[in-house]
């Protein structure tokens, strides 16, 4: 299901990704940590980034929100909810430019999307995958209440599967 909600916190704004975000996505998709932990998406030009974003927009099971600083609207990262063929439940994803690590932005933005998933989207569970050596992502998932489930072997290699259920009312 495609979501069009926007979100705001005291420090951040989240909105659905747009073609106009291609320069930022080009930078993010080619950042060292994206390439190391997520993988090369072969984005070599702004046209490639535009096509990547258009594919996200066109796919009803992919939702990406651009995360920006308030009030400057400087783009710093993305949060995603994606229904992947190989996972039973929706996958939470996140990636930020390294200049914005360690400041709580990823936690703040992912918490907003997780709260939305429970309260408005009415999701029963959320899963997340990460490389076993991506310690920062694992720590964030654990802070959000995700628990390790098992290792999965994908075409790109072995990853750790984490999952969380909604809090009890």
Describe this structure in words.
The chain is built from five helices and eight strands. The chain has an eight-stranded mixed sheet, sandwiched between helices. It has a domain at 7-122: Aminopeptidase. The chain is 30% helix and 30% strand. Strand 5, helix 4 (105-119) and strand 6 (126-130) form a beta-alpha-beta unit. It is an alpha+beta fold and 169 residues long. Helix 1 (22-29) packs across helix 3.
Brief rundown of the structure:
It is built from five helices and eight strands; from the N terminus they run ββαααβββαβαββ. It has helices at residues 22-29, 32-37, 46-58, 105-119, 135-143; strands spanning 7-8, 12-16, 62-69, 75-82, 90-96, 126-130, 147-154, 157-164. It is an alpha+beta fold.
The H-level CATH homologous superfamily of the domain at 7-122, spelled out, is Gcn5-related N-acetyltransferase (GNAT)
Shape: globular
Radius of gyration, CA atoms, in whole angstroms: 15 Å
How confident overall, as mean pLDDT? Answer: 95
**What portion of residues is helical?**
25-40%
Percentage of residues in strands: 25-35%
User: Assembly state here?
Assistant: single chain
CATH architecture of the domain at 7-122: 3-Layer(aba) Sandwich
Distance between the terminal alpha carbons, to the nearest Å? 25 Å
Tell me the number of helical segments per DSSP (H or I, 4 or more residues long): 5
Sheet with the most strands, sense and barrel status: 8 strands, mixed
Helix and strand run: EEHHHEEEHEHEE
Strand order of the largest sheet: 1-2-3-4-5-6-8-7
């Amino acid at each position: 299901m495609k979501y069009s909600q926007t979100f705001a916190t005291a420090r951040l704004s989240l909105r659905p990704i747009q073609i106009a975000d291609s320069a930022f996505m080009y930078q993010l998709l080619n950042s060292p940590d994206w390439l190391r932990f997520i993988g090369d998406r072969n984005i070599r030009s702004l046209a490639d980034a535009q096509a990547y974003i258009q594919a996200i927009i066109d796919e009803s099971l992919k939702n990406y929100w651009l995360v920006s600083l308030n009030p400057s609207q400087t783009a710093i990262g993305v949060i995603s909810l994606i229904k992947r063929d190989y996972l039973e439940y929706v996958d939470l994803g996140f990636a930020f430019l390294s200049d914005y690590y360690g400041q709580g932005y990823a936690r703040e933005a992912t918490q907003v999307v997780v709260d939305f998933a429970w309260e408005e989207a009415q999701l029963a569970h959320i899963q997340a995958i990460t490389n076993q050596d991506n310690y920062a992502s694992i720590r964030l998932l654990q802070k959000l209440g995700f628990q390790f489930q098992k290792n999965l072997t994908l075409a790109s290699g072995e990853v750790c599967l984490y999952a969380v259920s909604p809090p009890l009312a």
